[in-house]
Amino acid sequence: MKLVRHISTVAFYLTRLIAAGYFLTALYIILCVAFNLPTLQHLPDNRFAICYPFTSEHFLLGAEYTAGYIAEMVLLIFLYGVFFALLSNVFKSFRPQKIFTIQGIRHLQWFYLINLLLFPLVFLILGIYSIEDYPYVAMITAHCIMGIFALFIAAIFEQGVNLQNDQDLII
Amino acid sequence: MPIVVNVDVMLAKRKMQSKELADRLGITPANLSILKTGKAKGVRFDTLEAICKILNCQPGDILEYVEE
Predict the structure, then answer these.
(1) Consecutive H or E run containing B5
(2) What residues of chain A lie within 8 A of the CB of B43, using their CB?
């Protein structure tokens, strides 16, 4: 269990950091576009690029400078921020001495709900309307598999909480 | 539950306080309370042995079957 605790601690901080990066990137895009900051560069063919702050080095490239495309870009980046934030919560569940807790179940429930419902729905909509050519089927499949695993782990946690409660009543 | 825990009765007979018994058993007063109120799902043999030793009694003095 010590190894699991160490790995989950590292994974927790790593995923939290990644989530913060995604959220900040989403916010940065919104700020660049809303205030037309110098880091927003308009390229030929209505394409655009967003540079790293205070530099002219390209950070993000956009295929079409339209409100719809930018909204899609921000939404996807924000959603992956949410994904990593929820994943970090799942890792957090494995850190305490007492693993099977109601809070752990709640974290897993959020994680499987977002993977089984939100991501497939978003990718389905993007698959129909987006101009970007992402491998949507593979992405939906990957999220569904993760969601199913999380669902199973949540069921194990529920069983664990019940057994632990019973165990606590054996004096 | 048809199994009644008579720790209270034995404590009164031995003129011992719950806290003292909990201390000597090495369990929390809250857990002893769970045992006394019949909310416990089970008693370990170790615990039963220690209770019998401390209260100088038999398991039958602690546990009783009462038909519902």
Answers:
(1) strand B3-5
(2) 170-171
